[in-house]
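Q: I'm teaching a short session on how sequence maps to structure, and I want students to see two examples side by side rather than one. Could you give me a first protein with its sequence written out and its structure tokens following it? Keep the formatting plain so it prints cleanly on a handout.
A: Of course. Example one:
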Amino acid sequence: MDGAWDIAFVLFQMWLSIVVGLIMLPAMFGMSLGFTDIYIKVLVKILEWATLRIQRGLKEQPTLPSQSANGIIKKDDGSMEEEIGELRRSHPKNLAGADFTLCDAFYFCKKGIENIVEDQVTQRFTSEELASWNLLTRTNNNFRYISVRLTIIWGLGVFIRYFILLPLRITLAVIGLSWLVIGTNLVGLLPSSTVKNWLSDLVHITCYRICARALSATIRYHNKENRPKKGGICVANHTSPIDVVILANDGCYAMVGQVHEGPMGVIQRSMVRSCPHVWFERSENKDRHAVAKRLKDHIADKTKLPILIFPEGTCINNTSVMMFKKGSFEIGGTIYPVAIKYDPQFGDAFWNSAKYNIVSYILRMMTSWAIVCNVWYLPPMTRQDGEDAVHFANRVKSAIAQQASLVNLSWDGGLKREKVKESLKNEQKKNYSRTIKGL
């Protein structure tokens, strides 16, 4: 029995040596030994082979057609004015000068049916459709047997992801979060000084780099000269809770969020001891003025870290950008837009909070092949003279959508949990009123 324990202890020592020596230490210094890059290159070759084998197999046997990534119906891209004008021109009588004609109702009937069949909001909260299967069972709804070799590759992938990568990733995640809690608590004991700020930044960025290794993350940062500066506000599109890990690998931020209980609450309380993160109580979070004041006080101090905010307020499925809440754009200061785009070929980073709790989601991330994404730092933007917060938010959102090749939508992401606001209904009525007056 003692011999078995000795062997287990030796294996444990070897395991920690590999984790610390080959992963943790390089991560702490922002270095990489290249193992992840080699892993990604091999994975790309395997997925390319699998795609070709699947395509050949599909030609040899009938299969059900998969749903198009562009939707099941074709919608017109014209404006309300253009489509209603076309309806009136097609009418046998010349009714262009009338205030209202019965044929206008066909436009709203058509739009209503289109949105019942396939609305622009609901489809943004389901996993992104893939052009080809990436050997993850959960990403292929029409999985069918193709060949013995492909099945063996899939089974080997399951073994590697669950019995090799998963234990390694869990080990790294536990080490990274433990480092964050212990390190921030120790730094928090120091008096306020430049040294304390430097140590706090070191602890935070080291933790996030270790956690990124726990996801086998490969991140490409573009236009680093536009990185957010102190006293500013960084806004980004939101796909996943790991967006924070992705961005904080390349710089430190002050986080904004609601106070939590349990393990998350322990982490929050530890973080705020060493760095001025902005956490709100649930009751205070309902008071917009109180929230705005705390944010204004933060950005007024040019020595504090830039605030990181996701103005969509919810996770979108990596295909679109939805309405930015105007609160982040009312408090003043310089806005630093950041666009994040994940590569779905290696794993689905989207968190469908209505379907999966946070534990299930993290497990799915840690059993994916890898997390690969691009991050673009856009030039800083400020509110123009005479520009209100809503138009400023839309201008920033459009820039992010264009850079990351995402669909720019005006809908509020909160519609996945709430009914359409009366203000949005009234806005459509106003648009129709302006349209018929212009015809």
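Q: Perfect. Now a second example for contrast.
A: Example two:
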Amino acid sequence: MRFRILKKNLLVALGLSFIFVTVMFSTRVLISGNDTSSVAHENVLPGDTKFQFDSVQDMKTSVYNGNYKQNIQNRDMFSAEPQLVLVIQVHNRPDYLKILITSLEKAAEVHSFLLIFSHDYFSEEINSIVQGITFCKVLQIYFPFSTQLYPSEFPGQDPRDCQRDLSRDVAVKAGCLNAEHPDSYGHYREASITQTKHHWWWKLHFVWERVHALQGYSGFAIFLEEDNYMLPDLYHLYKDMLAFRKTSCPDCDMLALGNHDSLSADFFKLSDKVRTTGWMSTKHNIGMGISREVYYKLMGCGDDFCSYDDYNWDWTLQHLSGGCIAKPLKVLMAQGSRVLHTGNCGLHQKENCRPEWALQKAEEFLQQAKDSLFPQSLELSIAEPVEHKIHVKNGGWGDIRDHILCKNYAKRL
């Protein structure tokens, strides 16, 4: 009897040992599998972070490497945490980019900034310009679905896509790829037009979700474009606006450090003035400050942003404000703009670009305004009703492929 019990216990022990060994072996295989993938991953990510421009595939690899490694330029010289983050969307206007960087170099306390350049066009010239910055920390991020990386397929312009002005009936008979998905005005997508909205939305995700240097950052990110020019007291005004918001406008969602009356002769009267109002595309899309909290509000409306038939990110944002976002976004705006718009050449205008004229005009304005910079305090001049402003959508965003890609950015960063 005792032998039977011992035999039974031995069998149970052997069985448990077998299960334990099996589990350990499986776990080891899984760990080894993960290690193998890590090794393979590291092989894809070589130590050299230099951007390669030789081929489309080289650029794709460099984009992946850059976004993964996030090398902070000038980190050794400026080791402190950033006090202000500027996010600059860059396409292919190197002369305007130089003007922006020249203005930033003159900004007070620029050593405490982190500049994030978000690129959708990749060239040695542009890369060299950014690499030449030595006055603060710099991070370059790269839009991975740039039309430059997909020259003959979506999200670039596929030769099998329907031509813009083709009628739907003709398109269906021709069997072009997106025949069933024209925009609200019967036009088919143009990759060069859709890219800006794609890039802006991807950039917003990447900055707040993936940039390691911003983990723990509690300030606003100021969103700019390559054809902007900063006045020297930008950071001073930013700090004053934060203090004003804390005491006098805690429900202000966004900041606008710029406006489109930038070269006003009344700057000396407006330098210390702010106003509050509802966010509007045509007024508050320059030098726009977005906090992490507002980012989360926008993410709750991702499907609406990505399916709304307007190729402009800013008009789409206005559609969300008071629509999907029930309470319209409230903005605290500087009446004396610290962000000038220098671009006389952009998405729709490709000729007669004279950046040297733009620079001369900006420098002349700065000379006139310099005695009015660095105000001691801010004064609320106007508090406008915060209302939802309805507008007629512009179209250009009817293709279901654009909707799907846009909605997936949160998952495919």
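Q: What should students look for in example two?
A: Point them to this: The mean pLDDT is 88. Also worth mentioning: DSSP finds 14 helices and eleven strands in the chain.
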